[in-house]
User: Fold this.
Amino acid sequence: SVILAIESSCDETSASVCVDGVILSNVIANQTIHEAYGGVVPELASRVHQQNIVPAVHQALSIAKVNKNDVDAVAFTRGPGLLGSLLVGVSFAKAFALAKNIPLIDINHMQAHVLAHFIGDHKPEFPFLCLTVSGGHTQIVLVKDYFDMEVIGQTLDDAAGEAMDKTSKILGLPYPGGPLIDKYARLGNPDKYQFPEPQIPGFDFSFSGIKTAILYFIRDNVAANPDFVQQNLNDICASVEKRIATILLNKLSKAAKEYGIKDIALAGGVSANTGLRESLRALCEKNNWRSFIPKLEYCTDNAAMIAIAGYHKYLKGEFVSQDVAPLARMPL
Ligand code: ATP
Ligand code: MG
Ligand code: FE
Assistant:
C-alpha cells in the first residue's frame, strides 16, 4: 500500500509517504513567522499552511519516488489542533482523494504521536505506557492497541511544553523556547536552583505553579542584580529542565509500577529534550524496563507519524467519507 499523509495541526506543514509500512519521506516546513510574536498566531499559521502544503506534498512524493497516481489512500490529521490550520490539511486531503478516487483516513494527532513508535524496528509491545509531552498536552497513556488508548493521567493546567516555552519567555528567549532551554541546560548545573514539585494526587500533573515560582524567582533576583539572568542562564535552564523532567518521570514511574508495565515510551515535542531522554533511559535501566524514545524528527510535529497511523487504519479498512470535518478538540 502507498499512503500519502498530511499534518497541519499547528505551525508545521508536513507531508509523508509510507509504502507497506515503511516511511520513505517526511517533509516538514517550519513556520518562522511566529517567532516575532512569542507564540503561534493562528490566522498566520493557516495562511502559511496554504502556501506550503502543495510544495511539501510534491517534495514528499519526489523523495519517495512515488507517482501521485500510485497513491492508495490519503491520511490526514483531523484534530486536535488549531481549526484554521487543520482545515487546510483536511481540505487538501479531501481534494486529493476526490481527484484520485481513493479512500480518506482520519487520524487523531495525539494517537499519532504515540504511534510514531511503530516507525522502524524497535517497537514496544502492547500494553505499554507512553508519556506524551508536547506543546498542548501532557498525558500518561495506557496503550492497549493501535487505536485503543486510555489517558490515565494528564495535566490539570499547563502542558510540559508550555511550561518550557513560558519559562523561556520569562528568560527573554524567543519562541519556541524548549529547544533553547535544552541547549543552555547542557552547559549548566541542574542542582544549582531548586524549584517546587507540585503535590498532585494520582497520575495527574500541574505546571502552572512552577511557572509562577520561576517568574517570582527571576523577578526577585533581577531586582537585586539586573544581570542575573545573563550571568546564570545555563544554570537556570539546567535546573528548570531537571525539575520538569523529575515531575514527569516520578509520575510515569509510579504508573509503571502500579500497572505492572515494563515497556515505557516517550512521545511529543518535549520528548526531544536531552535531559528528559537521558533520565528516562536511566530510570528504565534501573528498573529493568525497556525504554522507547523516538528519533528527533518524529518527536515534534511531523507527517510520518500520521502516515504510520494511517497505514494501520488502512490495514483495518477504516476510512471516512468526504463530509468529514476537522475537530479542534478530539479525545484520544
Ligand atoms: P500538541 O501535540 O499538544 O497538539 P504541538 O503539536 O504544538 O502540541 P509538538 O510540536 O508536539 O506540540 O511539541 C512542541 C513543543 O515541544 C514546544 O513546547 C517546544 O518548546 C517543545 N520542545 C521541542 N523541542 C524541545 C526540546 N529539545 N526540549 C524541550 N522542549 C522541546
Ligand atoms: Mg510546532
Ligand atoms: Fe504535536
The CA atoms of residues 111 and 147 lie 7 Å apart.
